[in-house]
Here is the input.
Amino acid sequence: MSEKKGVDMDSDFLKSTDKNPSNIMPEKLTYDSPLQFECHPGVSCFTDCCHNIKIVLTPYDIMVLRKRLDMPSHEFITQYTEPNYLEKTDMPGVQIKLTEEKKACPFVTPEGCTVYEDRPTACRYYPVGMADFHEGGSEENETPKEDKFFFLVKEDHCKGFEEPKTWTIREWRADQGVDVRDEMNKEWLRLIMRRKSYGFQASLSDAAKRMFFMASTDLDHFRKFVFESSFLDTYEVDQETIDKIKNDDVELMFFSFKYLANTLFGAEGLKIKEGKIMAKVQEIQERQDDSLKKAEQDYLKIKAERELSKKEEEEAVKKTKK
Here is the structure.
């Protein structure tokens, strides 16, 4: 497939990358629906869609791109992205920082995308969007049901639809590597959808926002958090998982999603060690005991002061009578 940059349309997060939602075609498509479209350097609009666009990055996008550029996560984030809030939430994320002069993606040239093989998820979807709905199970541990369909985004400037190439939605997605990205991004997108379900009546604490941002954008830092803090002394993590996340970034990324789901929303998956729970309970009990002791001491002190005061008053009365 020739080089192509575009936008992503999966759920509200992916819709946030679209430049003009009114260009969505009002037709539900399936994996087997036909698609007539192709993009290549010979198309007159080639790379037009790489300008004046919002490209939100997923954790997997960041991981792949920073490896492609041989950069630490924090350097990539500083140089190539700018902060944003993920669609309709208070969850902090990042998007590609466009060039100042042309408002273009920093990785695009007249010849095409310089990171095409590792381009972001958003760029792989265009012009096929996906609406992915998750229905919560009726039982506590029931797996949510998924209902997805596809649709086309047709913008006036795009001439790719005039090309004779035809294939199915399934073939297009396979060609663009979208299925792999969907699997990599699924649990992270569910975190965002879960946050949205709470609405704005509840808000994340500053500490929760910092943790979400760190785990989503900087796996290097998150690994240090796991292995150089009291994390492994606090949580039950089996040795197999420890060995995987120590050197495997993909495994660490999936682990970070599990940790965020647990700490932000109380989802199952991570357990605090029994000893830590008992120690915390004992600490609380000791604080309560200390408070009770202090309260008792304060009460006895006040009682003694009142008795002394009463005695002094009685002595004063006796003296007056004499």
Observations:
- Confidence is low (pLDDT under 50) at residues 1-20, 135-144.
- The radius of gyration is 29 Å.
